């Protein structure tokens, strides 16, 4: 399930947006969240969140392994966000103050990213021996 919330002005923290939007998740949905959502626990949801290292302590080996698996998934998410932010309108100072225009800009950027990914073709493979004959 994918969800795109409306845009919020300034430096609004993701957890505050999540609390304001009051997301509803299906029963036993899997939710991968980063450490910025510490304490956010929706009902009937399986949460995958990396463990923080305790102060002046170390993590157990199994926690380190789980954190590395979660980090590899998170890397995919960050690459997607980087692909969406190819549209400079999202990175630069947004000077258009029309109602809903910021939401439209992010929706178009996401649609362009999805179009780019959907139409990405692998490199063509050919046999040089067949071309010589």
Please provide a written account of the structure.
By secondary structure, this protein is mainly alpha-helical. The chain has a domain of 40 residues. 44% of the residues lie in helices and 6% in strands. The chain has five helices and two strands, in the order H-E-E-H-H-H-H. It has a two-stranded parallel sheet with strand order 1-2. The termini are far apart.
Low-confidence stretches: none
The end-to-end distance, rounded to whole angstroms, is 51 Å
Strand order of the largest sheet: 1-2
Query: Which structural category fits the helices and strands?
Result: mainly alpha
Amount of helix: 40-55%
Percentage of residues in DSSP E strands: 5-15%
What radius of gyration results from the CA coordinates? 20 Å
Extended strand count: 2
Q: What's a quick, concise take on this entry?
A:
With 133 residues, this protein is mostly helical. It is built from five helices and two strands, in the order αββαααα.
Keywords:
about 130 residues, mainly alpha, two-stranded parallel sheet, 2 strands, about 45% helix, extended
């Amino acid at each position: 399930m994918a969800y795109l919330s409306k845009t919020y002005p300034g430096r609004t923290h993701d957890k505050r947006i999540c609390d304001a939007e009051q997301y509803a998740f299906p029963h036993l949905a899997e939710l991968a969240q980063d450490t910025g959502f510490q304490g956010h626990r929706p009902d009937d949801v399986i949460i995958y969140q990396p463990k923080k290292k305790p102060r002046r302590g170390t993590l157990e080996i199994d926690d380190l392994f789980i954190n590395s698996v979660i980090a590899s998934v998170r890397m995919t998410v960050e690459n997607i966000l980087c692909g969406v932010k190819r549209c400079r309108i999202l990175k630069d100072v947004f000077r258009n103050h029309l109602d809903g225009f910021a939401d439209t800009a992010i929706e178009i950027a996401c649609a362009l990213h999805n179009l780019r990914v959907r139409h990405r073709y692998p490199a063509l493979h050919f046999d040089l021996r067949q071309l010589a004959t």
